[in-house]
Amino acid sequence: MSLQYPLLFPRGEDGYRLGIKHRSVGRLLQHDYNEIYGDEDSSGDNGISERSRLKWVEKHQSIIRSDLYKNIVDSVSHGDISAADVGKRVVLPSSFTSGYRYMRQNFQDSLALCREYGHPDLFITFTCNPKWVEIQRAVADAGCGDASVRPDLVAPVFKMKLDAMMSDLMKKHAFGRAIAAVYTIEFQKRGLPHAHIVLWLADGDKLLSSDEIDLVISAEIPDKEVDPIGYEVVAQLMMHGLCGEANPSCPCMFNGKCMKYYPRPYASNTTMDSDGYALYRRRDLGRTVECNNIHLDNRHVVPYNRGLLVKYQAHINVERCNRSQSIKYLFKYIGKGPDKATVVIEPSNGSSQGLDVTAPAAQQRLFFHLEDEQKVRFRDDESLPQVLGRYKPDATMFIQWYRWDNAGKFWARRRQNDNVVGRMVYAHPASGQRFYMRLLLNLVAGATTFEAIRTVDGIIYPTYREACFHRGLLESDNEWHVALDDASSYATAPQLRELFVTMLLFCEVSNPSSLWDRHWSDLADDVEYNQRKLLHLPTLMLSDLDKQTLALEAINNLLNQHGKSLADFPGLPEIDKGTTYKFSNQLVLEEMMYDCQALKIDATERIGRLNSMQHLIFEKVVQSVNSCSGGFYFVYGHGGTRKTFLWSTIICKLRSEGHIVLAVATSGIASLLIEGGRTAHSRFRIPIDINESSTCEIRKNTHLAELICKASLVIWDEAPMTHRFIFEAVDRTFRNVREIVNPNAKDLPFGGLTVVLGGDFRQVLPVVLKEGREGIVAASISKSYLWQECKVFTLVENMRVQRNIPPITLDGKVMDFRDWILDIGNGVQQTYDLAGNGDSSCIKIPKELQVSYSGDPIKAIVNEIYGGREERHSSIDYLRERAILTPLNEYVDKINREVLSRLPDTPAVYKSSDSICKGSSGNAFDDILYPPEYLNSLKFSGVPNHELQLKVGTPIMILRNLNPKKGLCNGTRLIVTRSYKFLLEALIITGNKIGEKTYIPRICMTPADKTLPFTLKRKQFPIGGCYAMTINKSQGQTMKHVGLFLPDPAFSHGQIYVAISRVTSPTGLRILCVNEDDKYAGYTKNVVYHEIFNDIVPIDPTHT
């Protein structure tokens, strides 16, 4: 009884016992008896049924056994006859609904849908409404006052309503054509059931734009006069509250804040970030709903769909989702299973687990095996020859593929449902060859033998693990050995050392000493020659120890550029300081190695080419540096005002006089445009996870701290892209470390160091996940406490010498192309409200820039930009000067595949090795819950996909700052010249190292996505194809031919401006806007946050 009804007998007492009270226990009315015994009947009947099933398994575990077919054959060959001496007992199977294996199977089936169809499109929560007419009528007939005490009445009605809704979603296409759905019903012991539903929509019906979302999801109160029915149902069922200060005891409150983030901020339009997270439209329309004398407005509305809401009269929360987090939430009880209690009742045999069956719950899946290792089940009283006689592998497979047609008297191949999503059953990583075989079966198509599965490039490997390794599916230091062996055939010793450093920094080499011991002679191949040339001793012979020491010194210098040293990699030899001289601070040394005389000549020539405003800024900055007075400046100017030229002039002047200037930029591409430039993150060791109180990883009395103390100036380009928290972290760090050279540093911006920021607020602003317009604007540097100390200079004169730039025509008006671009950036171009919803942010594209199409728009834009002769596709100049830009990575991948498919030769296919970082989720079952093929299907911004297809001559883009000094930054474009199994050789085609050859290994990367319940580690080449790239990725790049592909409107401030300003002439710009209505062809949305310009108040040049 105590296991059956734990709420009634929490201390485990008997149902009836001696001494139980018979008097003074109160009286129950008849309907109370009905409620109590109704619950007892429901839960009792179900509990008895489940107990019966479990009892049978428990009773027969001793006689039902299983083993591998091969093991039984081996036993018979050794003379064993009895089945009781082999195998193991059968455990609770996945067919048991409440079991852990059942939960795990359903979870993995859902992940298989994610792998096949991508992330779900909609997440719907459907809650039972006790006020439904059907429930109220049944409750009244039963003489009950509260529906929650009659689950036998509530649960059937809810299930019928849920079935009707699923029919609306899947068959009647309430949100468009649905291709798959998964739902779970959650029962609460003292509440009402509710269902969580995830829905996959077919291509063409996905909610990709803000307008499409607004058509099906609303977060606003309907107009009471226009839609009184909608108003009433939203007011009754979809208002969140009352919480906050008005009701601090509300269940959603924690530490004084609503855990559901209500009230949400007003939003004039639905917006999406680069990851597709939607912030719904919540306009301040003055509509309210009264709740306990408090007026709730649109900020308190839970997103809903009006059609479903009015039809089902229940709380139905509809959310657009873009990550598999919804699947994880849907099966959040996967490791917990059903409610259960563990009670020690058999001390001699341990403990037993009993299901806690609640009344509402009561109402209510390609196998594989190693060769000859299929599972065989048998009874322990059978003989082993008899068991083998029942399992004949060659005979049993035929009927699985064919059926006997009795009418035609022939064997017919079984027909398959094309709409089935296949899933390979799970194999634990510790299961050895079976796990590796499973990895291969997900890749090898059409294998008919076990040998075919183990075949790679025509070689049959003896084990599945070896086959996996040679396909690049496993992590092993042997990969780095192979990569260095391949590179040594073509690469010079300096290139090999750079590759070796890249491996140490990014590849998680487990045994660096082994890598050094095996390859040191290749890494030191040039040191003897260099020493002969340096010392003018042509017959000089160095010992192996001398060669190793000099090579290690060169490697250590490369590591110093990344803030590391040999000491950070245990196992690598120490440098013999008696062989070579080591400077005390390599960072300071590098900044003092410039040719001052050459810089002085260059500075003089550049100063004479400055315009009046540039010269004013130049004088102001140089004066601030020479007087050591410090200062904080911002230079604001659009493309063409030659900010980079101004930076170079200031840098040449100050470096020629012995000053240290630290030139940094937000993006790697921008940093390459300045001599000695670095990304701000790498130079100042800015943490990845940043908040309002963060500081940089720079401690006093370190080499980097000494460099900052000796620096005279910091120039920081592309500042508007950077979150203000980053500038504030650098400010706090500088104030701390510069106290050594300036006692007042803690009271001065950036510790009294002169800092010059530059950029264009018309361009893309900081990326802030899950934040709308207000959050993005608030993250700007102009909203920082530092801004009040900043002096703003504005450059407006376009200094680029351009001739014969044709004008453009818009609505019959002839315009200068550069003026049109600035109007787009400033948001002053004429706009239109095409949807008629008050969103007048659409602009018209000039006719001469539009790309018309019929059929596939991707083919149309590719034909426009890459439609030339095929031989041009191998021309470096041809590929460097053109690209297709689009807002989302999804379309980047599609365009890259389209262009690659048009080129001859078969592509080399590289697949990543994906795993979950141990301990990242705190769930011991991660290896079970998330199989490798699901991890392979995940795609992230800034991380390469699981599968890369490359051909020699393919343009690629670096996705990590591998070696900024050598031009390998995030955004650098290259051409593949050779491809090896674990190594790529490529030629740099952009930046300041054009024409240099480099080698790229696979590295370990972790996405910054925080929505996953675990941390993914992906080992893959840090590259992506770049026939196309995202608009954000193109910032800082200049090209002659750009195709802007807009299948969906731009979603963030400055994207259209950034895209069209990559070219300097309209003859090189083509724009394709995909609009369902032909009359709107040539229109697109231009998102501009006008309030970002309010804080930009330039100083008066006459009063400086």
TrEMBL record:
Molecular-function GO term, any one: 5'-3' DNA helicase activity
A Pfam family annotated for this UniProt entry: Helitron_like_N
Keyword line: ATP-binding, DNA damage, DNA recombination, DNA repair, Helicase, Hydrolase, Nucleotide-binding
BP terms from Gene Ontology: DNA recombination; DNA repair; telomere maintenance
Domain DNA helicase Pif1-like DEAD-box helicase: 610-830
Transmembrane intervals: none
Cofactor: Mg(2+)
Every Helitron helicase-like domain range: 49-199
Domain DNA helicase Pif1-like 2B per the UniProt entry, residue ranges: 933-977
E.C. numbers: 5.6.2.3
Entry-linked InterPro entries: DNA_helicase_pif1-like_DEAD (IPR010285), Helitron_helicase-like (IPR025476), P-loop_NTPase (IPR027417), Pif1-like_2B_dom (IPR049163)
SUPFAM superfamilies from the UniProt entry: P-loop containing nucleoside triphosphate hydrolases
Catalysed conversion reaction: ATP + H2O = ADP + phosphate + H(+)
Recorded family membership: Belongs to the helicase family.
Protein name in UniProt: ATP-dependent DNA helicase
Native source species: Daucus carota subsp. sativus (Carrot)
